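User: Could you check the structure of this?
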Amino acid sequence: MLAMDGTLTASIARKPHFTVWSALLLLATVCLTLIGLVTLFSASQSIYNNEFTILKKQLVWLVIALAAGVAAFVTPIERMRDWVWVLSGIVILGLILTLVPGVGITVNGAQRWIGFAGLRVQVSEFVKPVLVLALAHYMASNQRSLDGFLKGFLVPILIVGLVCGLIFLQPDYGTAVLCGSVGMILIFLAGVRVMYLVPSALCALGVFAFMVSRNPERLSRITSYLNIEENLSTGAYQLWQGILAFGAGGLTGVGLGNGRQQFSFLPEAHTDFIFAILGEEMGLIATMSVVILFLAIFVICMLQLRRAPNLYQFLLGVGALLFITLQAIINLGVVTGCLPTKGMSLPFISYGGSNLVVMFLLIGLILNLFRHWARPFVSEASELKSFND
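Assistant: Sure, the predicted structure tokens are below.
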């Protein structure tokens, strides 16, 4: 659109806006984060005998996460594509360095961390936003070739397979399966032929089943899950203690700081099983509130995805949403006994810096998309044409 003096006014129409949907998404994120801080405040006293120890560490990570979220929010969506392969290379290098003895840090038999500036960074967490960005950029750039086998299927599958393979070696089966699932969904939504995807998905499931069968610890988690009562003292102990926590909490909970499970009865109470601590101390009302907040994030994003102007932005939004919601579903499923035990953080609530930073990155990216989708889309080509006319 041109003004009377011939200047282009489309830039005004294209100015991003912060909408009600963005405000609701931000509110849900803030509520989940506050619930996490309160629960961690309570869980700290059983681990360090000081209720501020874990809270202080988490607040440091929260400051970093806020900075990351703001950066994702203000960075132009299209400019992100200029850095996609550089970021991909950095992440791949980080995954390789994690496996190098003396560089990678091993905790509980898993070599997933790298020390950086006095902090432990879990590189596999940062795969999530970079994988979404890489697939969205590649699929959008090769949109006309997605029916083909080479560019449409083989290249994106190799990207997903490389990342998942390196994560498998750590080993971190849960994150590998999560990244593989999100990657396959994005490839499917981009329009790649189902006849290519189904066999590859079945092969991936076969490889996963073989890897699990060769790992006694992970195999015991599945067998224990299938028969909890006979494995209370072994593989099902953590799950059983989590179930007891929910039962003790009832509707309103036993009160903040009064739960028994956090006092060394429930392993990883402040990380993977923090939802059980929440259920014991604050009851069904609090746990259902968390579920509703995650559901709100999912519904808000789904309602807005239809406004995506192109495949690139659509895949960015879907990928970011899937990593948040699928991770939440897996964690809630494990803690409530609906899925076999798997170490995976509850987004925004569990203790852990890398995951918190990545979740805020993804939320910042979604908010960035929302503020651009709030106004009528005007392509760069249309603007230039109007300007020249």
